[in-house]
């Protein structure tokens, strides 16, 4: 209902070698993502049009030519999915090669991230809320410096509910609440305070005094990205959310891409990719540990809170909760889910 209708994150474009293909699982569908010699992506269902054999069994493998060959009977397709060759068979007059291409899946590359969508009529990707917030970061050129993968015992929607509010921040995230003081008040932004009025000036610096990024010390692990404005540097973090698949947090010195994969009704894989400028990664003495450790601590705390929430939902008496005013983003997420049910 949801994952088969929306864009799903498939990985960083520059983490996949040219002339290779990678297996993906999206909404229970077995797919292959293909990258050609020029770096362009295509995606197909991982099934041969002959008798349905799996085309790629390995998680990822290099292509020896510009062709995809079925290992069962040798039917061969080009990288656009068109049937090219069927060895050893007799062709009948009613057989039309042009109708026997691979089943195609929509692909989109955006800011160096690759996405796929199973829907025949994919939603408009160009209307991603807040996408312009990343324009001053060199997103396409960033490279992966660290990856964290963790399985958490909760439904993926529980994770997004937790992400969409900060009432839990003072109790669950003491370190983050100290780093971003407004979080310690249970708000995601200063204008959520009950006494805020439109003529109240908003603070320009979101981090605690002396801090420049989200790290164990508040210190940068690399020079700040050169095109950032003073306002972007002072904000400390910029979030972009792409439901249901991922969110991106851009900081002065690194970017964190966090993606979800549902593994079952109460199991979710949480994956965080820490992205840095190539020059920073290559610099002598570069150490991403302070930023990695801080963000990992926050994500582990979120995971534990989500698992606690999931366990509590097993109560035979629980039917529904009550949202507070600061949980307006949770309500917005619930309405997003309901729209899929109505469609």
Keywords for this structure?
343 residues; five-stranded antiparallel β-sheet; 26% strand; Aromatic ring-hydroxylating dioxygenase subunit alpha; dioxygenase; oxidoreductase
Topology of this protein?
Elements (H helix, E strand, L loop, with lengths): L7 E5 L7 E7 L2 E7 L5 E5 L14 E3 L4 E3 L6 E3 L4 E3 L18 E7 L2 E5 L25 E10 L3 H8 L5 H4 L1 H6 L50 H6 L2 E5 L3 E5 L4 E10 L2 E10 L1 H5 L6 H24 L15 H15 L1
Antiparallel strand pairs: 1-10, 2-3, 2-5, 3-4, 4-9, 6-7, 7-8, 9-10, 11-15, 12-13, 13-14, 14-15
Helix pairs in contact: 1-6
Organism: Taklimakanibacter albus
Protein name: Aromatic ring-hydroxylating dioxygenase subunit alpha
Keywords: Dioxygenase, Oxidoreductase
Describe the structure in your own words.
There is one protein chain. This protein is of the alpha+beta class. The chain is 20% helix and 26% strand. Strands 1-10-9-4-3-2-5 form a seven-stranded antiparallel β-sheet, with no helix packed on it. A five-stranded antiparallel β-sheet has the order 11-15-14-13-12. A hairpin with a 4-residue loop joins strand 7 and strand 8. The longest helix has 24 residues, at 289-312. The radius of gyration is 23 Å and the shape is globular. The relative contact order is 0.14. This is Aromatic ring-hydroxylating dioxygenase subunit alpha. Keywords: Dioxygenase, Oxidoreductase.
């Amino acid at each position: 209902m949801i994952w088969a209708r929306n864009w799903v994150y498939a990985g960083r474009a520059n983490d996949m070698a040219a002339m290779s293909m990678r297996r993906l699982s999206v909404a229970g569908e077995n797919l292959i993502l293909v990258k050609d010699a020029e770096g362009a992506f295509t995606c197909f269902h991982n099934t041969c049009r002959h008798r349905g054999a799996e085309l790629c069994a390995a998680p990822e493998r290099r292509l020896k030519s510009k062709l995809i060959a079925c290992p069962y009977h040798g039917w061969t397709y080009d990288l656009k999915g068109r049937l090219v060759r069927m060895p050893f068979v007799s062709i009948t007059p009613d057989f039309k090669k042009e109708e026997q291409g691979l089943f195609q899946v929509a692909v989109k590359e955006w800011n160096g991230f690759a996405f796929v969508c199973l829907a025949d009529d994919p939603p408009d990707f160009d209307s991603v809320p807040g996408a312009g917030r990343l324009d001053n970061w060199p997103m396409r050129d960033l490279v992966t410096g660290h990856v964290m993968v963790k399985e958490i015992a909760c439904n993926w929607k529980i994770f997004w509910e937790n992400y969409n509010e900060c009432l839990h921040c003072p109790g669950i995230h003491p370190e983050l609440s100290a780093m971003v003081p407004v979080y310690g008040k249970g708000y995601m932004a200063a204008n959520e305070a009950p006494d805020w009025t439109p003529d109240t000036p908003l603070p320009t610096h979101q981090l605690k005094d002396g801090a420049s990024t989200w790290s164990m010390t508040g210190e940068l692990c690399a020079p700040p990205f050169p095109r950032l404005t003073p306002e972007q540097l002072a904000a400390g973090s910029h979030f972009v959310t792409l439901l249901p698949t991922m969110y991106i947090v851009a900081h002065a010195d690194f970017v964190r891409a966090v993606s979800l994969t549902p593994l079952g009704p109460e199991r979710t894989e949480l994956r965080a990719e820490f992205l840095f400028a190539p020059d920073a990664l290559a610099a002598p003495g570069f150490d991403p540990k302070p930023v990695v450790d801080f963000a990992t601590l926050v994500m582990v705390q979120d995971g534990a809170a989500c698992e606690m929430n999931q366990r509590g939902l097993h109560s035979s008496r629980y039917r529904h909760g009550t949202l507070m005013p600061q949980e307006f983003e949770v309500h917005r997420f619930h309405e997003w889910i309901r729209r899929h049910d109505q469609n």
